[in-house]
Predict the structure.
Amino acid sequence: MNFSSQLLEDAVNEFAKLPGVGQKTALRLVLHLLNKEQEEVSHFGHTLIRLKAEIKHCNICHNISDHSTCSICTAAKRDKETICVVEDTRDVMAIENTNQYFGVYHVLGGLISPMDGIGPSDLFIDSLVQRVATTPVKEIILALSANMEGDTTLFYLHKRLKEFQIPITAIARGIAFGGELEYADEITLGRSILTRVPYEGSFIR
């Protein structure tokens, strides 16, 4: 792609680094911003800088938050004794959109994937075990993507948590194998939460 401006090319290359954004889409986005008023573009840039500089992670569940403890963990009406374990913030948002779950969350920050060099120590698993050991918990829901990495993580979490003799459930497999939680429609995901089943490692083949 030939550019008439080095500044334009540099901006397009930065946008093209975003997931799912190719050169043509990046060019369209950059040209869109160029057609905006300076104040709008400045606000756009300032918002991204503030996001990176000021965003926090909840000191309880590790969800993205504006404060040291997120609004879900501090909400009086949430069931603090039911913990839904998810891969990342996108899954929290997906489950919240179903309006079928009223407990709290624990965000792992990823899934166990030996091929990608991601092991249990790279995730927020120890803090989950510590949380279960030190606070009243009546159920742990494992709501992870239905793929090999998700199943591997499910199996490992079950081994780490079964000593506490707390019911451990997993969302029902209304989510197709190989599917990621964030892409499931709200009805399917909501039903999978409601029809969760006891987890005993049975998903591992």
User: Anything to note?
Assistant: The chain has two domains: 6-54, 66-198. The longest strand covers residues 79-86.
